[in-house]
């Protein structure tokens, strides 16, 4: 047998052993479920499905309906424009959704049995959020309303420009009364007005006579308070005015109280636990209800049996029920084997619909009795992946440099062999209060499944500051950004090396947003990686501070402005140690990113070039903090695949 034939046989054998996984385009093409809403009688589930339209270069969302017994599911909305945010009328005879199919985003109604949808509103500013009234005769919604006359006249005379802060538009509450005949437009009245606040979340009182809402002032830090508007005379009363953000009000069943999420007057609340608190609906002294709950509760609703809320517990997404009188709570469902991402309860609270993920599986829409919790899938999104051999996820833990206990999600190739040393790729989540969990999701930006199929371990560390691990853990990177984060990443790397699983000469790191910042910090503070990719990352905290749309972030985490304490800004900035950078670095960034503005990317790129370090900067034209169109997202993923293919696997 000739040499060529032998090499061919070896190549064929290696190919046969390589797990088959989705390529980048396939990974971005999979359908996925979104918001889930159970009909009041618990018999039907409305949910959204997002899929990729490569021709229009858009992700499009439509509303589907499934029977709760799993016997049938069907697509309810169609068209060139997305339909999202489905909500059942209290009687279950209509399903509302929002869509911009006629231009601005409007509220549409459709029968859950199908038929032609019709636009209920024609708001000039476009609808933002909306809620049905308890009697189903009205829908409240928020909008910025029509462009002010003065703004139109200024534009005609001087063209387009913005006076920062002073030109902020305010959102207000409107009430649409359903017409007598289907197909007609609603009669709309404005409930709040003025420039003293801008409305965000809101809810109806049980009797339908009042609306509670949270509101703040654009560009003013931590200004959210709770108000109550009376429909009859349009009077507005502030009922909560504690310092810091107060938001997401919901009414007690008797209308006497309002529960809401609050920072509880914490000055540095970005990394502290939020609380649930209740206040008399007529005004009075607020009462904190979750003082002893060590995480961030996310309010669902107040029902007869108690207050439902969601929260992370390490990598588990769970649903809790709170006794508002005793302040005690119990976990109803969701754990480290089955994650709950969002729930909707039937009117009698006996049935729940949810988007959830079983361990090492993709998200589905489930229906279950509330007790005992026995989720049954009414969708089959996992079927899209049945022909593939995907990596297996597991949660691991290790001790960081300062003794902090760190968890992470380790993905192993489908054909993993114990005792073999693998390349290691570290994928770092954003936030910093994000969290990685051992549940599957389609790849975006970083082709985890393709890396695993090529023979790599992929570690996703839940570094200090990650959600789910309590307030003390989220506070560990205060005045220690980058520094402590690097301890957590590198100790996780060393933990795997010590176990004999990793080839330390073939390692890479990458991440987006805060994960991009940590990746940039690794670029300038260690030479242990063969390659790094920085997605929308911070390179200099002063550059970030003066350009970002959330200035409080650095003031909270570094406890100072750059003018007060330039030393801590320098110590935690990747650019400070640019002179010692050696690692080849790919930089990806949106041109119009307001959260982490583009100057951060140029600063890192030029600094690396000045040191003679190989660097590549890709600027995605017209995009903000996320690259949210399929074709450009495909390039992000492919560029990372090729970058690490070159430096880790020696590919051309």
Question: How would you summarize what this structure contains?
Answer:
The protein has 652 residues and is α+β, with helices and mostly antiparallel strands.
Give a verbal description of the structure:
- By secondary structure, the chain is α+β, with helices and mostly antiparallel strands.
- The chain has a domain at 388-649: Alpha/Beta hydrolase fold, catalytic domain (Rossmann fold), CATH 3.40.50.
- Helices cover 18% and strands 34% of the residues.
- It is built from 12 helices and 36 strands.
- An 8-stranded mixed beta sheet has the order 29-30-32-31-33-34-35-36, sandwiched between helices. Strands 1-2-3-4 form a 4-stranded antiparallel beta sheet, with no helix packed on it. Strands 5-6-7-8 form a 4-stranded antiparallel beta sheet, with no helix packed on it.
- A hairpin with a 5-residue loop joins β15 and β16.
- It is globular, with a radius of gyration of 26 Å.
- The model is unreliable at 6-16 (pLDDT under 50).
**Radius of gyration from CA coordinates:** 26 Å
**Major sheet: size, sense and barrel closure?**
8 strands, mixed
What's the shape?
globular
Task: Note the quaternary state here.
Answer: single chain
CATH architecture of the domain at 388-649: 3-Layer(aba) Sandwich
**How is the CATH topology of the domain at 388-649 named?**
Rossmann fold
Averaged pLDDT, please? 94
By CATH reckoning, the class of the domain at 388-649 would read: Alpha Beta
CATH superfamily grouping of the domain at 388-649: Alpha/Beta hydrolase fold, catalytic domain
C-alpha termini separation: 29 Å
Would you identify the regions where 5 or more consecutive residues have pLDDT less than 50? 6-16
Strand content: 25-35%
List the total number of helices.
12
| Helical content (DSSP H or I, runs of 4+) | 10-25%
